[in-house]
Specification:
Helix content is 32%, strand content 21%. The strands form seven sheets. Strands 1, 2, 3, 4, 5, 6, 17, 18 and 21 form a nine-stranded mixed β-sheet that branches. By secondary structure, it is α/β, with parallel strands linked by helices. Strand 8, helix 6 and strand 9 form a beta-alpha-beta unit. The chain binds flavin-adenine dinucleotide. The site of flavin-adenine dinucleotide has 33 residues, from helix 2, strand 4 and helix 6.
Length: 508
Amino acid sequence: MTPTAAVVSRVEHVDVLIVGAGISGIGAAYYLQEQHPHKSYAILEARGATGGTWDLFRYPGIRSDSDLHTFGYEFKPWRDDHAIATADKILAYLRETAAENGIDDKVRFHHKVLGAAWSSDDARWIVDVERTDTEELVQIGATWIFCAGGYYRYDEGFTPHFEGRERFEGQIVHPQHWPTDLDYTGKKVVVVGSGATAVTLVPAMAEKAGHVTMLQRSPTYIMPVPSKDVFANTAKKLLGDKRGYALTRRKNILKQRAVYRLCQRYPGAARRLIRYLNAKQLPEGYPVDEHFNPAYNPWDQRLCAVPDADLFKAIRAGAASVVTDRIATFTRAGILLDSGRELEADIIVTATGLNLQAFGGMSFSVDGEPVCLPDRVAYKGMMLTGVPNFAFAIGYTNSSWTLKIGLLCEHFCRLLAHMDTNGYDTARPELDDPDMETRPLLDFGAGYVKRAIGQLPRQGVGEPWLMSMSYHTDVKLLRDDSVIDPHLRLTASGAAAAVVEREPAVSG
Ligand SMILES: Cc1cc2nc3c(=O)[nH]c(=O)nc-3n(C[C@H](O)[C@H](O)[C@H](O)COP(=O)(O)OP(=O)(O)OC[C@H]3O[C@@H](n4cnc5c(N)ncnc54)[C@H](O)[C@@H]3O)c2cc1C
């Protein structure tokens, strides 16, 4: 759809269009309406429900591996006694936030954003939207787009090619598309993979299944953590919900940072510590190094948490086991491994990951020129060079995703305030040095990142071009530092220009 002048003048216009009603989009709406109560906004959500990730995934045991004191919003205490929480509790928390702040009313369900065209003359986006319920195409105008579309494709999880897949006579299931009627009681289950999803699924399914085997090509770091945080629950009792939550949040931020730093600085010691904690949970004589000692260093890829050591308990009880080997082929009855061993299975779960997708799969053009994402560089981890009035929400991969989103929302709201005060209507990051050294947007070794890294924008090697993964760096950059930056061109077009001429700029 190409916006014609006639269409442009007719389309509805909002000040901010938020894409996605997951934890990030609902959070962005909260900050926006708190800081800018007079701005109009809408949330476009492709699905028929809020919650994003926490509504989409329905596999047994689905839970966070972050503590909710840092994964939850800064402005809304997490009250449940469990710090590591199941999806239904996270969803209830998100939906309560949306309901009590009137954010629900702003969500337009079944609205999938396909692309957006920026016009510098009008200083606005025209956004192409597909109604996923009626297949109708509609357009909406927006001064800003805040994209909170997550980081992976919703329609399809990642499954590698498995030789002989069609021969297998049992059922093959992907965790992203869990059949509601799947009955695995008493059945032999093989879960292929060893990431966060696999380590959640294995103990949960082991409660009912005949036996669950986790089949991994190579080991992952697995860290037992208590599902309840004694400190948090005591602080809540003594100080009340709000102050107890704030204190626990601060404690956990410091703890996450300390653990991450320890792992990065002393990988050998961290590796030995994790191995020791694993060995303590496993039966005597268990081949710990074969199944739980990865080739990479701790936190070079995400570390998987297992609440109350549930995976290890299932292994100790004999209800689950781990096999480290490669798949030669699927057979009629299961999986034949490179070693020659065959794993029998009634059900094979391919916990093989996600398909990474940036910005909800939207395409962009600026004044008629298509935007090629790999040619763009992230600015302050929230905007793209040469793309005006577009902010995006990509959180941390080494601690709670949402810790970053809160800071981004604060910065975004401060930027809007500064622009309003000074009569600017356009903010566009510009790279002065086209030969600046760049590197991949996400420096994270996970398979789903590596597979898609070439399709993503890039980051630089110094501020403000870094995709920082450090909360403390971001507090300074996004919360404390000015929104004014020589690399962010703030301009006024048309009516706004007249305002700028009359009013001197103030600092932000
Ligand atoms: C199983 C699982 C467990 C996880 N556990 C943790 C954890 O414990 N801690 C942690 O920090 N992170 C975790 N993550 C990462 C997690 O996805 C994020 O932390 C967080 O939930 C992302 O929230 P979000 O709102 O940014 O994105 P999402 O939850 O992905 O929500 C995005 C929303 O945008 C909508 N959308 C996307 N594209 C469009 C479009 N073009 N038009 C309209 N709407 C669109 C989607 O339908 C969706 O509702 C986990 C991820 C998975 C898959």
